[in-house]
């Protein structure tokens, strides 16, 4: 940043002169200049006005912002503030009406990876448990740049944040889920699983579990793309959440025995469950309590696949006194973000028409 910070005054002159098609040389009134400078210095104003100001900044070309001393840190701070505003579901829905949604989506193509990642983070907040904003983002073609960043961005943090935004965008949003299938999204999830980046793997496994619960027919896609082998490997990961998510995915595949989505005779699957059982049995009391979900998942998977009690159940290690009074339902989507949970829309189960799926590798 320049010594005196960004030239917000000059930026306002440019923004106001271009927003209505007037000449850039239009004289700036003292009232407009004072309004903008006070806003940019953090004076108290109402949220809608502040969001309008941020939207104006986002419409400015990168080169202009740079010429006025605006740094990446400045833009990240601006996006942080916008994210705070759109925590309110009403303000999130107002973002489009004040002209801020399209400029925000354009930041997904910003030349700086930090800005692309932060933009996806803001969009996650905008659409999370918010059917109206989900629809607005889809109508504004926001799904496409998110998918591009998820599949092809060279920065792993951008890919991870984009996947988080996609996950929030398509939850309880049937058009979004269909678009994800048709756009070869599952191939992108497969790439995420083998990325070696724990946070990326967690988000991918979380979304896979949700999608499999939403549609049993998706189990065939997962099977055909070789997800079972990958999830068997990830179920031995050092990260507890990755292990649990992988076991959840395997359990969803195992539930439909007639479809043979999971080969129960696979020696690698049996070895996995035996190995996880041995490790759980050898855990300290503290680790056993922390691995509550893993204990239950291993037990249910064993019983589902081999139709006999697991060693964990025989040893009384499935439910322990340290567990909550009510054991969690391990097949329920317990990872729904709490933000605006009251506004979540639970769509009715409907028979989906068969769609042609693109199962080739992600580009």
UniProtKB/TrEMBL annotation:
PANTHER family given in the database record: FES1B, PROTEIN FOLDING REGULATOR
Protein's name according to its UniProt entry: TOG domain-containing protein
Superkingdom assignment: Eukaryota
Record domain TOG: where: 46-286
Pfam family, one: Fes1
GO cellular component, one term: endoplasmic reticulum
Organism: Thlaspi arvense (Field penny-cress)
InterPro entries: ARM-like, ARM-type_fold, Hsp70_NEF-Inhibitors, Nucleotide_exch_fac_Fes1, TOG
Molecular functions (GO terms): adenyl-nucleotide exchange factor activity
């Amino acid at each position: 940043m320049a010594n005196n910070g960004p030239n917000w005054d000059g930026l306002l002159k440019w923004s106001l002169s271009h927003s209505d098609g007037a000449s850039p040389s239009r004289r700036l009134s003292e009232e407009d200049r004072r309004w903008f400078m006070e806003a940019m210095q953090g004076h108290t104003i109402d949220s809608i006005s502040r969001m309008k100001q941020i939207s104006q900044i986002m419409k400015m070309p990168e080169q202009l912002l740079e010429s006025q001393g605006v740094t990446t840190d400045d833009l990240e701070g601006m996006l942080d503030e916008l994210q705070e505003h759109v925590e309110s579901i009403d303000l999130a829905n107002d973002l489009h009406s004040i002209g801020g949604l399209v400029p925000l989506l354009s930041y997904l193509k910003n030349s700086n990876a930090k800005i692309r990642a932060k933009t996806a983070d803001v969009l996650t907040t905008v659409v999370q448990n918010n059917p109206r904003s989900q629809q607005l983002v889809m109508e504004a073609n926001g799904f496409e740049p998110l998918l591009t960043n998820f599949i092809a961005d060279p920065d792993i943090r951008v890919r991870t944040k984009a996947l988080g935004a996609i996950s929030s965008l398509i939850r309880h949003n049937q058009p979004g889920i269909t678009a994800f299938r048709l756009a070869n999204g599952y191939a992108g999830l497969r790439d995420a699983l083998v990325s070696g980046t724990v946070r990326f793997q967690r988000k991918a496994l979380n979304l896979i579990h949700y999608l499999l619960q939403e549609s049993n027919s998706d189990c065939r896609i997962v099977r055909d793309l070789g997800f079972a082998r990958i999830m068997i490997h990830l179920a031995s990961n050092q990260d507890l959440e990755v292990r649990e998510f992988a076991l959840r995915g395997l359990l969803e595949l195992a539930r439909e025995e007639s479809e043979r989505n999971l080969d129960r005779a696979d020696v690698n699957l049996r070895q996995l469950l035996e190995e996880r059982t041995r490790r759980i049995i050898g855990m300290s009391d503290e680790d056993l309590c922390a691995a509550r979900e893993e204990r239950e998942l291993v037990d249910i998977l064993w019983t589902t696949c081999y139709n006999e009690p697991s060693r964990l159940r025989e040893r009384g290690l499935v439910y322990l006194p340290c567990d909550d009074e009510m054991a969690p339902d391990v097949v329920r989507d317990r990872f729904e973000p709490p933000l605006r949970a009251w506004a979540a829309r639970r769509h009715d189960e409907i028979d989906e028409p068969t769609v042609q799926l693109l199962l080739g590798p992600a580009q």
